User: What shape does this take?
Amino acid sequence: MTDATGRFCRLEQAEAIDLVMSLAPDSVDLAYADPPFFTGRDHGAFDDRWPDGLASFVEAVVASLAPLATRLTPSGSLYVHLDWRTVHHVKVALDDVFGADSFLNEIIWSYGLGGSGKRWWPRKHDTILWYVRNPGQHWFEAPRVPARSRRMAGQDKKAPDVWDIPAINNMARERTGYPTQKPLALLERIVASSCPPGGVVLDPYCGSGTTCEAAERLGRSWIAGDRSAEAVATTKRRLTAT
Ligand SMILES: C[S@@+](CC[C@H](N)C(=O)[O-])C[C@H]1O[C@@H](n2cnc3c(N)ncnc32)[C@H](O)[C@@H]1O
Assistant: This one.
C-alpha cells in the first residue's frame, strides 16, 4: 500500500528468508530482526523448539539475514535482537557474513521485569547486535537521554549502549497479547536513530508489529513479515487501531 506522500507498507505471512530474498538490492535503510530466542518453548502463536539443536537455530537465523548484505542501502543498518542463549553464536556467524568491521555496537536492553533465579544472577537484559553495510557511510542520529550525573543535572546526553527501557507491563495500553512483544519505545529508538526520515524499515520476524507501528509513527515506510498467521493478524489489527 502506498499513501499520497509516497510512503508505503507491505505485510506478508512469509518465511523470513523468502521475504528478505524477495527484496531489491540497496532497498532497505534499516532491518530489525527479533527471531525466536531458542527458549525450547511452544509460545502458542509460534513454536520455539529446535529438535536439531543450537547449530540448526544459528544456521536458520543467519541464512535469513545474510541476503541483507546486498539488500541494505549503502548507508543501511541491521539490528539483531537475541539473548544470552544464542547471541554469542549468532554474533560469530554474522561477523563472517557482514565483516567484523561492520559490527558497531552490542546494545544491552535492560528491562527490569522478570528474570528471577535463586542459583544464578537474575537475567534482566537482552542483547541487540548492530551491523552496518558500510562502516563510516552509515546513517545515524544519536538519540539523547536525560543525564544522570549530578554534574549534568537537568541536561541531556547521547544515549549510551545500555538502554534502560521498561518491558511492557500487563496493564500497558500498547500490549496486544502476542507473546514476546517488545516495547514501542525500544523500536522507536532504533528507527529514529538508524533510518533516515522517509526511509524504509524491514522486520522479517514482525510478531505483533511493534516495528511497523514505530515506523508509522515516525513517518518511515515499512516491510514486515512473519510465518505465523496470528502474528500477521495481530499486526493488521494493531495498525488499524493506531
Ligand atoms: C520474538 S517474536 C517477535 C516479536 C516482535 N518483535 C514483537 O514486538 O511483537 C519472533 C517471531 O518470529 C516468527 N518466526 C519464527 N520463525 C520464523 C521464520 N522462519 N520466518 C518468519 N517468521 C518467523 C514467530 O512467528 C514470531 O512471531
